[in-house]
Design brief:
binds flavin mononucleotide, 4 strands, alpha+beta
Length: 174
């Protein structure tokens, strides 16, 4: 796992190659195996591979989502805020696990933030997606995950670039 963590970078360019059904099944298994508070599993995941729909996901906000149009797959990560007060944490756990699973399968991925983001001055990115994907009102959208075979190479972060000062022993010290 530490080798996967060392190599992982956000990948925002993808080849047109589709993801094989066996790998797709593993990505689905990964999100479903994610831990959740009180085992409530308040999430729902939409696995989007329709090209026209991916192009529409890519404009859910003005910046930082355009690469979804080229991705083989977009995963819409939703949480039921009525079911659990930790839906955000539960969704985030599932996201990092699916990103690491993608990494282990030779796929690249990138998180696209949706919660608290705007589609335009009047409409939140979440409202835009709720209408586009026919999501029920109670389902909140945490993020989208773009994934596919990487069409860019990114160097691992060197060990010396890590912010060691963020780690404290026993009590907080600046
Ligand atoms: C909560 C969260 C939200 C993010 N939102 C976006 C986003 O909307 N668009 C994007 O291109 N990258 C997004 N990223 C990816 C970060 O920009 C990226 O992880 C960070 O720059 C570090 O780079 P690395 O992942 O290559 O190590 C997000 C990452 C996280 C954890």
């Amino acid at each position: 796992m530490i080798e996967l963590l060392r190599a992982r970078r956000s990948i925002r360019a993808y080849t047109p190659e589709p993801i094989e059904p066996q790998k797709l099944a593993l990505l689905k298994e990964a999100v479903l195996r994610s831990p959740s508070s009180r085992n409530i599993d308040p999430w729902e995941f939409l696995f989007v591979d329709d090209r026209a729909l991916l192009a529409k996901l890519a404009v859910c906000k003005p910046h930082g989502a355009d690469f979804l149009a080229q991705a083989a797959l977009g995963i819409v990560v939703c949480g039921d805020s009525r079911a659990s007060d930790t839906w955000i944490e539960d969704c985030a756990s599932a996201v990092i696990l699916v990103q690491m699973t993608a990494q282990s399968l030779g796929l690249g991925s990138c998180w696209v933030q949706v919660r608290c983001r705007m589609f335009d001055a009047q409409t939140t990115s979440e409202q835009y997606l709720q209408r586009l994907l026919h999501l029920p009102e109670h389902l909140k959208v945490e993020c989208l995950i773009a994934t596919g075979y990487p069409a860019e190479e990114r160097e691992p972060l060197p060990r010396e670039d890590l912010k060691d000062a963020k780690i404290h022993g026993n009590t907080y010290r600046v």
